[in-house]
Design goal:
- It is a single chain.
- The strands form 2 sheets. A 3-stranded mixed beta sheet has the order 2-4-3, with helices on one face. The protein has a two-stranded antiparallel sheet with strand order 1-5.
- Helix 12 packs across helix 14.
- The N terminus and C terminus are likely disordered.
- It contains 18 helices and 5 strands.
- It is globular.
- It is mainly α.
């Protein structure tokens, strides 16, 4: 059996080769009868399962609970397996773009459901409740968590290796900027410089004014990388009302960027990244564009694709220079620090929840690998404990957008704004569906013809 990390290397290399691949004709679309069968399969998967007749293992208990839980999980296994079998005859490249995306979403729903049900069945047969601390080192359990957050079939070991590779790249970039600031080899001096009084914003009026300034600079420069603002109004900026409930410095909340200074003070060099990620072109623009473009009809496939959503927020942090922010090395360094922090947090999460690390071992890892990040150690340990595998959504999602951007632009004929339009206007989807969408767009550009000229056959 080939290890999964080898599969990933082959897959990544394949993307580079595919960018130079010769043009190929588009396949014949599915027949009208096949399309009707597909739509029916999607309609069935869009229906919620009848949980009134099912027991989830974590809620099991009482006499014969394991037998009941095992039977419930068995029914769910059969349901999800039948759903996957119903989708098996269909190919994304023989469907129109919206149905191809729905195919990816439906397979994600059924695959995650099947994996969860199989794990619950196994644990029920062993009379163990899903989620008990004694089971958190189970590879199936953590693999399921990874799949929920990334829509990818990953082992904890592969995710740990991926995190460490990203960590090494971020550390190298950190050291370049550290030297540029005049603190090569001097982390203590750098931390003192970065936390000096002149950068500390304590008053709401000062924080909001700085964030509005950044927001307005980005909006003025959106056309450099996007086809406008998709009708999104300027994001509102407010303080998060319950700081004890959020171990993060900002979140997006339905049109509002809510900042949350964890120690009562926000460092000014953090503002650019927070506005990019939570505002426009991050989650604020992402949500508005998907809602206003409405390229595809709604089908009821309601799985939340975290890697696509949080990956987008992480990916657009790369665009600071293009959009007129990151004008100081301190601000650029904060973006690198976040890449480094996320990678170290994913490694810590795997260590704590799968490898059996103690908290002190996790702290030792953080101190050794997250350069210059001692001030946020407690916060990051808390996030690694609270949200197993969640950070994988940020890392793998951003990696997906970077790779797909490279694929889209590889022939020298791509427009970055068009790539971003594809990423924004179809809504969240699994990585496999987004790759199919980008490959389709590249071939359409190369051939000068739509993917399926017989649009009437494919219309809903």
């Amino acid at each position: 059996m080939i290890p999964r990390f080898i599969h990933r290397l082959i897959f990544t290399a394949g993307l580079a080769l595919a960018a130079c691949a010769p043009e190929r004709p588009t396949p014949e679309p599915h027949s009208p009868e096949e399309i009707a069968a597909f739509d029916e399969a999607i309609a069935q998967i869009s229906k919620p399962l009848d949980f009134s007749a099912m027991r989830i293992v974590v809620f099991g208990g009482g006499e014969n609970a394991s037998d009941q839980d095992a039977a419930s999980a068995r029914r769910r296994i059969d349901t999800h397996r039948a759903r996957l079998e119903a989708l098996a005859p269909f190919s994304a490249d023989r469907l129109d773009a919206c149905r191809a995306i729905d195919l990816g979403r439906a397979r994600s729903i059924a695959s995650v459901g099947l994996r969860e049900a199989r794990l619950e069945h196994r644990l029920a047969m062993a009379d163990v409740a899903l989620g008990e601390e004694t089971d958190r080192r189970d590879e199936d359990w953590f693999g399921l968590e990874l799949q929920k957050w990334t829509d990818l079939d990953l082992t904890p070991e592969a995710a740990f290796a991926f995190a460490e590779a990203e960590l090494a790249r971020a550390q190298a970039d950190f050291k370049v900027l550290q030297a540029e600031l005049g603190f090569a080899g001097d982390l203590d001096g750098l931390e003192a410089h970065l936390n000096r009084e002149a950068l500390r914003l304590a008053e709401d009026a000062d924080i909001q004014a700085r964030m509005r300034e950044t927001r307005d600079v980005i909006r003025a420069n959106l056309a450099r990388a996007f086809h406008g603002d998709y009708g999104a109004p300027p994001v509102k900026i407010r303080r998060f009302p319950r700081p004890d409930r959020l171990p993060a410095e900002a979140l997006y909340d339905g049109g509002t960027l809510r900042y949350n200074p964890l120690d009562g003070v926000l460092n000014a060099r953090k503002v650019d990244l927070l506005v990019l990620h939570e505002g426009a072109p991050g989650h604020h623009l992402q949500m508005r564009a998907a809602a206003t473009a409405r390229r595809c009809p709604r089908t009821g496939l309601n799985r939340f694709h975290w890697a696509f959503t949080e990956g987008w927020g992480s990916y657009v942090e790369d665009l600071g220079d293009t959009l007129g922010v990151y004008t100081t090395p301190e601000a650029k360094l904060y973006a690198v620090e976040w890449r480094m922090s996320r990678a170290a947090r994913l490694a810590m999460s795997i260590g704590l929840h799968h490898l059996g690390w103690t908290e002190e071992e996790a702290r030792a890892y953080w101190r050794a690998e997250a350069l210059g990040q001692s001030a946020v150690e407690d916060q990051q340990i808390q996030r690694a404990r609270l949200w197993p595998a969640r950070t994988a959504a940020y890392l793998y999602g951003a990696d997906m957008f970077r790779r797909m951007r490279a694929l889209y632009m590889a022939d020298g004929r791509g427009d970055l704004r068009d790539f971003h339009d594809l990423a924004l206007t179809y809504g969240p989807m699994p990585p496999q569906a987004f790759e199919a969408l980008i490959r389709r767009a590249v071939i359409e550009r190369q051939t000068g013809a739509p993917w399926h000229p017989s649009g009437a056959v494919l219309a809903r």
